Amino acid sequence: MAKWFSKIGSMLVHNKGPKLASLFFAVITWxxxxxxxxxxxxxxxxxxxxxxxxxxxxxxxxxxxxxxxFRGSQEDLRxxxxxxxxxNVDVHVEPTSQGALVIRxxxxxxxxxxxARAVAIQPGEINLKLDQEGDKQVPVKVAFQTEPPEGxxxxxxxxxxxxxxxxxxxxxxxxxxxxxxxxxxxxxRVRSFKKLKVEIAQPSETWAxxxxxPFVMVDVTIxxxxxxxxxxxxxxxxxxxxxxxxxxxxxxPSKVHITLKGRSxxxxxxxxxxxxxxxxxxQLQIGAEYDLPxxxxxxxxxxxxxxxxxTVKVTLVE
Length: 318
Description:
This protein is mainly beta. The chain has helices at 2-13, 16-36, 74-78, 170-173, 264-267; strands at 39-52, 56-61, 65-72, 86-91, 100-104, 110-111, 117-122, 125-144, 152-160, 163-169, 179-184, 193-199, 210-212, 215-224, 227-235, 237-239, 248-252, 255-262, 276-280, 289-293, 295-297, 303-308, 311-317.
């Protein structure tokens, strides 16, 4: 053994200069590497995913998001974002827990792409209250962030599927009668549209539900807002066959009240004399009495909202 130590000492003394230089450069290189990979970045408000044993659900958590401190190279940290980071906690319920637990959080709970390392997590522990898991089928509603532009209105909203099943603490599920999809922006939209995959929002900020399916399709119908205009006592004309031998026509009532609908700028230009109101008698036999629908032709873009009466009695006399 003494001979072996003597040999090692001889090797260290021999060529001492080059060996010291190599040691010096090795230390410099180590410090350079440590400096290059010792940058730090804090990613905040990362959603905390809590997985509990089957049959249980989280009723209350002291924290739903966490902040994680990462260490690594500038390149590793530059593109690190909240969407890339996952924080998962597996909770196993002991029979004596009675649904109340204190769970410690550790950087090992953090998953992220690349080589950046999680070195700290805040808060370091969370308090949980658990309940037996239940489920409930509820309808889906849509919350809009904004209104349609002036002159347009929301006519119809259809979600597919129209209802979803939510899983969560039984005591909380009793209070839930519907869920909502994430807010949809209608600003500047003047045409109907469809969103194929819209996420359903969590029903509460204090507890997380499992929703199946988590996405729905939303079909939104937008229409121009219509104004109305009533024109009263409009005479009813009769349309005859040019070869008809009819000498006298009896129409009762001879006048109708018409309610028009359309854009307000179009309705302003429509008056009684602009309306062509008539009944079609071109195929009728002389001498008989008929109940005929009243027809109206008017300007493009203007429709008929209502007519009183909608039919009149007509008698043709030779």
